[in-house]
Amino acid sequence: MSTINYSEKIPNNVNLAEDRTLQRALEQWQPSFINWWDDVGPVGSTDSEVYLRTAVSVDPQGWAQFGHVKMRDYRWGVFLNPGSADRDVHFGDHKGEKVWQDVPGEHRANLRRIIVTQGDTEPASVEQQRHLGLTAPSMYDLRNLFQINVEEGRHLWAMVYLLQKHFGRDGREEAGALLERRSGDENNPRILGAFNEATPDWLAFFMFTYFTDRDGKFQLAALAESAFDPLARTTKFMLTEEAHHMFVGESGVSRVIQRTAQAINTLKTDDPATLRGAGVIDLETLQRYVNFHYSVTIDLFGADQSSNAATFYSSGLKGRYEEGKRDDDHVLKGQTYKVLEVVGGQLVEKEVPMLNALNEVLRDDFIKDSMAGVGRWNKVLEKAGLPHRLTVPHKAFHRNIGALSQVKVSPDGRVVAEAEWATNKDKWLPSREDFAFVASLMGRVVEPGQFANWIAPPNMGINKQPVDFEYVRFN
Length: 475
Ligand SMILES: [Fe+2]
Ligand SMILES: [Fe+2]
Known about the structure:
By secondary structure, this protein is mainly alpha-helical. It has helices spanning 20-40, 108-128, 139-166, 168-177, 202-223, 229-267, 272-277, 283-299, 307-314, 358-383, 418-428, 432-441; strands spanning 49-54, 65-70, 336-343, 346-353, 408-409, 415-416, 472-473.
């Protein structure tokens, strides 16, 4: 059951051949997907053969298949984790009932919305990253970018499968629209804000894959708890791929820090201008990138108080992160949670019903998880004997969603007047000069084993290959 059949036009482990209607619908969607990939997928990659990992089964060991393939020929398909037939709903009002194999009528609209919103982020990130191959800092990094791109494509397939299988005509229309919206397009943008921001350079890419793919991890983990079993099983499999995306981000930033620390020690100065002159990224600029990507990403969790979040939970559509490991009643009625509110120009904590605050609960889980990685980045500085540390900004900094969007807050959590914000904005967020400087470092370095000056090589290669392995064959 869990072995994937690659001899079919659409590789799958869901017995697609037995559902002719669905198979036809997906086979009709497939050429549109390829057209979308050709139009807005990775620029200039058509003839390259990339050392990619392909899933051969959904077992943990089913991951080990690596080989050079053209991305356009990547076997995108439909893979679900095996189900356990007797799984019970374990939170919300339906707690204790059997999970659903089909969409209950009363939850149809909400489930569709959840799946479409998740599905929309997948092609969006491919669009955001499409130019990066032209300025890769190494062949190793280029390969990692392309691996992420094909997997985001597969995540789109995963959501389209659910739409086409369970939502009839509406689902087919939504599947089409997922290929029509475009990241950053004024007339037909992607659904969520962060997925319309540009990913202009590789530092932004590493920050995005560290922070924003981690939002993906938390959203998928919450959906993996769903009472709608096909959604739970699909997202569980997607999570295994997400781990690699976050690894690329974390190790990428770590290597940038390593290189900068080395330059600080060699040049015996941490002066940003001197470091920039030496062609490395100063820690102040790195901090501003952290501030930007962190704040834009925590907005993705939605408003701090939301009746939708309560509905999604109570009706069993979306759980909390690691729902099963929590020792409360998993119904949450009468429980409270602290959110931040602005009163008289000050941030104050306020207790609200937990059900309405579940976006905030997930955001706080995300914050804990992302701070752990920032701590690992600081170990690199510590090891290099440097006193500098990176931090994540205050939760209320630079927010565009919820109660906190009404105030300007400094990275250390003070509510500030417009004038103070304006004076300091370029110290707190990447300025035009920062972007121009980072852009000036972005040249294409793609000879095997060569690395751009601003980033250290990784400790090891992919799949135990050497660092100077030919990860991409340009044809
Ligand atoms: Fe994804
Ligand atoms: Fe991802």
